[in-house]
Amino acid sequence: MHLATYSAAENAGTVRGIVSREAETVGDLVVTLISNDTELGTVPATVTIPDGVGAVPFTLRVVDDAVVEDDQNVIITARATGCIAGSDSLLVKNDDFPPMPITDNGDAGFSQTARFRAKP
Hints:
By secondary structure, this protein is an all-beta fold. It is 0% helix and 41% strand.
């Protein structure tokens, strides 16, 4: 099991992963994928490596929340009957920032009214 990168921003959307099997490629192999923290990243419950094929891709969906937090690791584990489990981790980099306080410092130019508009 391998992820295409070691880190991604919360707003990255997705990261590609690959599950593979050693030597023996006879018969379909159903692989269970598990995320240790679905608030950071989710994966399909299973992927199937078809008969005669050594590896297949899967997609890890990076969860973009609105929570200010430290960067965190999500660990993805792949398990299949008769095979050794494998795992890889992704550092999910937070893209949220705390609100910025606006303080009146006594300057004559201070205004208590502000208008904000999103860029198109």
